Amino acid sequence: MPLKFSEVQQKEIIEAGSGRFIGYIIDAEVCATTGMITAFLVAEPKKMFNFFHGDESVRRVLISDILVIGKDVILVKDVS
């Protein structure tokens, strides 16, 4: 069942091994040749120190690292 990008953006990204909340999808990388999405860019939650600086940490999650897309969360392999 296809999902709209806006629907995917509302899901929490969770590391399956640790259960750690990684963040929410803010953008996607698309292959110029195939037109397929290759990775999601995930904004990590701001820590107290970074909250005041406004710097946003973004993590790249490959599509191949996605294990399950659930109703509310997306489980991914452990990413470092």
Furnish the topology, listing elements before pairings.
Layout: H1 5-8, E1 12-15, E2 21-30, E3 37-43, H2 48-51, E4 58-62, E5 66-69, E6 73-76
Parallel strand pairs: 1-6
Antiparallel strand pairs: 1-2, 2-3, 3-4, 5-6
Structural summary, described in words:
- The protein has 80 residues and is mostly beta strands.
- Helix content is 10%, strand content 42%.
- It is built from two helices and six strands, in the order αβββαβββ.
- The protein has helices at 5-8, 48-51, and strands spanning 12-15, 21-30, 37-43, 58-62, 66-69, 73-76.
- Strands 4-3-2-1-6-5 form a six-stranded mixed β-sheet, with no helix packed on it.
- A hairpin with a 6-residue loop joins strand 2 (21-30) and strand 3 (37-43).
Concise synopsis of the structure shown:
The chain has 80 residues and is mainly beta.
Radius of gyration: 13 Å
Q: What's the overall average pLDDT, rounded?
A: 89
Question: Termini distance?
Answer: 30 Å
Number of strands: 6
Report the total helices: 2
Strand order of the largest sheet: 4-3-2-1-6-5
Entry keywords:
single chain; 80 residues; mainly beta; six-stranded mixed sheet; 42% strand; globular
